[in-house]
Amino acid sequence: MSAAKVQNVVIVGGGTAGWTAAAAVARLIGANLNVTLVESDAIGTVGVGEATIPPFRTMHRLLKVDEADFLSRVQGTIKLGICFENWRALGHDYIHSFGFTGQGCWAAGFQHFWLKARALGFGEDYGRYAPELMAAKAGRFGLLQKDALSYAYHIDATSYAGLLRQQAEQDGVTRIEGKIVDVHQTESGDISEVVLESGQVVKGDLFIDCSGFVSLLMDKALGTDFEDWTHWLPCDRAIAVQTSAVSEPIPYTRSIARESGWQWRIPLQNRVGNGLVYCSEFMSDDEARSTLVGNLEGELITEPRVLRFRTGQRAKHWNRNCVALGLAAGFLEPLESTSIHLIQRGVIRLMQMFPYGGVVESDRTEFNRQMDTEFRTIRDFIIMHYHVTERTDSEFWRRCRDMDVPDSLRHRLDLFRDTGRVFEAEGDIFRENSWTQVMLGQGIEPQSYHPIVDMMGEQELRQFMQIQGQKVDHVLNQLPTHQEFINHYCPTVDT
Hints:
Elements: E1 8-12, H1 15-29, E2 34-39, E3 50-51, H2 56-63, H3 67-73, E4 77-79, E5 81-85, E6 93-97, H4 110-119, H5 131-138, E7 152-155, H6 157-170, E8 174-177, E9 180-185, E10 191-196, E11 201-203, E12 206-209, H7 216-221, E13 226-228, E14 237-244, E15 253-258, E16 261-267, E17 271-278, H8 285-293, E18 305-308, E19 312-314, E20 318-319, E21 322-324, E22 330-331, H9 339-352, H10 361-387, H11 395-402, H12 407-419, H13 432-442, H14 458-476, H15 482-489
Parallel strand pairs: 1-2, 1-12, 2-8, 5-15, 12-21
Antiparallel strand pairs: 3-7, 4-7, 5-6, 9-10, 10-11, 13-19, 14-17, 14-18, 15-16, 16-17, 19-22, 20-21
């Protein structure tokens, strides 16, 4: 155990990661803590647009964030899933939606009932039985008392960080403007203080590194090893840009596979966040810029900005008296919108294990184990999108299709292909429905279904499938359009 109790928490870096940590620590556990955040206005954030996943709302409930006010201030829209275009094959698309598809039983998920129905010549597309997916396709959303939809948000990242900052400062967080030029450590190796360009010294007992790809504390000061996953996820650059909106925002993210990567479109109320994730081995920065700009809708609001990254994670997310969050801890490309989720999970875990009495190794070990497990399960899920493909039209896609994948992913793919079964692993934020939707969408056809389904006769199964469709229709019939919902609930306000 470290000699000193933790009373002074120093967060290095702002943005979504830094201000999420500051707001959460200050409001939820900060009664006897001094929380200081150091950031420099001269160091920018990406600030294009962010897509989230449903667990995002859990943090907001903890922080007592008013949903309508929040959405208005961040130009927010609703997200019900992601549409994957050209991933399986050129011209093919499918939606990975939130929530559940159909009704399963204790022994078998709904996909088993669907598989038998299809084998007998009836049953519609799998997505027909997912209310979130059908609402997304119809451009509808509403807050229902019953049959509630699972949803997340599209938000402006810069506005969101500003909202969190306002809340954190109201709860007592001290913000210091300045650029860190030196990091001092104790004889034991713990970080003791950071030194600013102005000469100001900021001392702390626990440091949270939210300095982005620079990883000022975890990498530069502590030299924490980085586990590189580029051999599985070869994309290493992105270009991001904002454009004006040319139509009403849709309630889902678009992910459009290109020749050597993929393009995102995140619709906000008054503009669109765009970007292209690509592999520099197969596409130059100029080619990437041309590809992105040539596939945009609306006028450019910002100049395209190139970001360089390595996919992977720190060998330790908590090293000595420093915890890394966000890009300082690792990077998984935003294909399934997990970046903010991983920040929030790190924050919540830190609060669950907060070292008031001093840092103990058992806490660090457990924190690192849990973060490592979650990073790996998300990694496998993302790899699957690239690997399970029919595309052979470029060297990039041929390499992704033919590459060796982690044993953990190989087992999941084989299990689903052979039996239609999906089991959720520890730390897996993607449930049975998510894995099923994506594997089916990418083209895996299970060879069998659970025999418990055969206990239903054909007529009973027909009726069962009809009821599942009717349940979805019942939900859809209650929903206004997505734009009507925004106009009534959370129109953008000037901040």
